[in-house]
Predict the structure.
Amino acid sequence: MTQATYSMKHLFIVAALAVPFALHAQNKNVVSAYNYMGDGDYDKAAEYIEPATTNETTSSKEKTWRYRGAIYAQIAMGTDDALKMKYPNALDKAIESYVKANELDTKASYKEENDHALRNLQITALNGGNDAFNNKNYEKAIEGYKQSERIAKAFGQVDSNAVFNSALAYEAMGDTATAMERYAECIKIGYDKPDVFRYLASMQKRTGNLDAAIVTTQQGLAKYPDNKELMLDLVAFLLEANRMDEAETSVKAAIANDPTNPVLYSVLGSLYDGKANPKEGEVNEADMIKWYDLAEQAYKKSIEVDPTFFDSYYNIGVLYNNRAAYEYEKCNQIKDDAKYNACKTKADEIYLKTIPFFEEAHKLKPDDTATLQQLKILYAKSGDTEKYNAIKKELGE
C-alpha cells in the first residue's frame, strides 16, 4: 500500500466518522437543553437548543421543536424580567416552535400536548395585549392580539376577541382606517355585537361617510331589531342626512318597540320641528303649522311619559319661540295699525306660552345658562320685574 493510498483511505474514514459525530453532538445538545429546562435554567436550555434547530438532522425532529417551544414558553410566561429582556421574542419563538412541532409530528403523537401548550400561549398573548392596552401601550397591545390571532389560526380558528380588541387599540391610537377594517372584520367573522356596528358606524360618520354609517346601522338593526341604541343612531344619522321620511319611519318603529322612552318622543318632536323649518327649500304655512302641531304633541307626550325629562321642556319652549318668530315676521309686513296690533297680540301669546316650559326646564337644571337667558328675555317681555331681577341675580349680572 502506498502512502497516497493510505492517506486517501484514512481521510475517507475520518470524513465518514464526522457525520455520526456531528449528529451525536446535536442530539447531545437536545438532551442538554431538555435537562437544563428540567432544572429551570431556561437561559442555558435556550443556548443548547438553538444549534439543534439548524442542524439538518435534528431540525427535522418533532422533539427538537417541542423542547424549544417549551423552553421559550417558560421564558415568555415566567416572572424573570431579566430573562424576558434577554429573549424579547420568546413568545414568538414558542409559538413558531409548537406549530413546527405539529407539522413534523406526522403520527400526531404529541399533538394534544402541543395544542394544549399553544392554547396556554394564546391566553398569554391575549392577556398581554389586554395589559398593554390598559397601560395605553397600544402598539404592544396590537402585537399581543396579532400573536393570539396567529395561534388561533394554527388551530383553524379565529380569535374574535383579539380581532375586536385590536380594533379598539387601533382606534385608541388614532389609526381610524385600520380600526374600521378591524371592526368590519369582526362583523364578517360573526363577532357582530350591537356595539361593533355602532363603533364602525360612528367612525364612518366621523370620516365623512354618512351613507356608509346609515348602511352599517341598518345592518346592525337587521340582526338586533330591538336594540334601542342602534335605533337612536339610525334616526340621528337619517336626520343629519336630511332623509326625514326615513327618519320618521325609524323613530316610530323605535317608539312601538319602547313606548315609554321619552327620548324617542323628543326625537320625533325634533323631526317634525325640522320639517317645519327645513334646512333646504321652503314649506307653505299650512304644512308648517301642521308640523309645528305634531312637534308640540310629541314633546308633550315625552313630558307625559317622563315629567323629569329636561330636553322636551326646553325644546317645546324653543318650538314656541320659532312659531312666534314666524308670526312676528308676518306682522312686520302689515301696514295697517289695527291689523298689526292684532297680529302682534297673537304672536305675543304664542311667545309667552314658552314661560312655563322654560321654568320647568330651569327647575330640572338650575345651572343651564341657555334656559336662564331665555327666561330673562321672557320676563322682560312679560313685564315680570320680580322674576326678571331674580334671574339676573342667578346669572350674576
Q: What stands out?
A: Residues 191 and 297 are 41 Å apart (CA to CA). The mean pLDDT is 88. The domain at 260-397 is CATH 1.25.40.10 (Serine Threonine Protein Phosphatase 5, Tetratricopeptide repeat).
